[in-house]
Amino acid sequence: MIYTVTLNPALDRAMLVEELNEDDTTRIVNETYYAAGKGIDVSRVIRELGGQSVALGLVGGYDGLHLEGMLINAGVMTNFTRISQETRTNIILKEKKTGRQFVISASGPEINATEIGQFYQNVLAVQGMDFLIMSGSLPRGVSPNLYGQLVLAGKKKGAFVFLDSDGEALKESIAYQPTGIKPNIHELSRLVGRELKTEPDILKACEEVHQKGVEFVLASRGKDGLILSTPEQKIKAIAPPVKIESTVGAGDSTVAGFVLAYSREKDLQECVRFACAAGAAAVETPGTELCHRATFERILPDVIITIM
After folding, report:
1. How many Å is the Cα radius of gyration of the chain?
2. pLDDT value, residue 139
3. In sequence order, what are the residues at sequence separation of 6 or more whose Cβ sits closer than 8 angstroms to the Cβ of residue 5?
């Protein structure tokens, strides 16, 4: 079974208005809620593409129940740890007249030591963990070291441990040797401490990560596609041109496509093809929507794979 971890989930409240009126009433034309957070996005995409996973994480209060209920109703299995404070709510406000979009992101709850301990024990108690995907930012009160502890817990269970994070959380976790990571080009640059301008630069950076014990580096480069690097293989995938509506969730869709294909025992070229198609399908959806299966299946045959 695939398990995803979201330590700082959110309830996204997307509101559409005709136009923002200063010092006057602005009426909402349409309002939608989404269960959000990078690991949760991965679980949602896996479900959309016909797979199944279990979403782990920290939720609290009414909004936490709302988020969990939405996932359950969408067919995503959950096993969340309850916390005392309320799950954060983000506001995505879009003007219909101008197309402008404003994202107001909440800082979220502060997690106490007891809640961290309970979550960790819940992870240790999981049975049948084949894949552990950890994604996203850390909430207040949680140190970057927790991802490293979870890497060790997943590896102890024999799981394929995949990490999608940034900054200190990523740097510290590398020392614990996750099976794979999914940085974008900017995150990979920050990880190795220099700008990466060319494909040879990227491959050299990947080799440095491999030398630290990480087997898979899946580097995303926007319209320039993906590069998967292992110590034995280098594979590039480029999607056909797509209409860009929003890049939100593209990275999470990429992770979902790769791990889902790998869990189905597809070869690495096909895994990268799945990842690239899922990421490209996500950018064709507006706002915080994720990739749609029909779009993914349309794009998949046209992904160009190159052995580097």
Report:
1. 19
2. 93
3. 39, 56, 57, 123, 132, 133, 134, 135, 150
pLDDT at residue 287, rounded to an integer: 65
Q: Are 277 and 260 in contact (CB under 8 A)?
A: no
Which pLDDT score, from 0 to 100, does residue 46 have?
Answer: 97
What confidence score (pLDDT) does residue 20 get? 87
In a 10 Å sphere around its CB, with 0-12 CB exposed, 13-18 middle and 19+ buried, how is residue 280 labelled? Answer: buried
Query: What contacts 281, CB < 8 A, 6 or more positions away?
Result: 242, 253, 291, 292, 295, 296, 298, 299
- Four-point Cα dihedral 202, 290, 265, 129, nearest 10: 100
Distance CA 255, CA 275 (A): 6
Q: Is the pTM of this model over 0.85?
A: yes
Number of neighbours of residue 193 by Cβ within 10 angstroms: 9
Residues tagged active-site: 252
pLDDT of residue 98: 86
The fold adopted by the segment(s) 2-7+37-82+111-307 is UDP-N-acetylmuramoyl-L-alanine:D-glutamate ligase (3.40.1190)
Q: In the chain, what is the greatest distance between 2 CA atoms, to the nearest angstrom?
A: 62
Helices 185-192 and 199-210 meet at what angle, rounded to 10? Answer: 60
List alpha helices for the chain, DSSP H: 38-48, 61-73, 113-124, 145-156, 167-174, 185-192, 199-210, 250-263, 268-283, 293-299
Provide the 8-state DSSP code for 198: S
pLDDT of residue 245: 75
Query: Contact at 8 Å (CB) between 147 and 116?
Result: no
Cα gap 59→227, rounded to integer Å: 34
DSSP state of 195: -
What average pLDDT values come out for the chain (308 residues) when binned by 10 residues? 96 88 86 91 96 97 95 96 95 86 88 96 95 93 93 95 92 94 94 92 96 96 92 95 78 95 96 96 79 93 94
Rounded CA separation 184/196 (Å): 11
| Residue among 22, 294, 4, 273 nearest 150 (CA) | 4
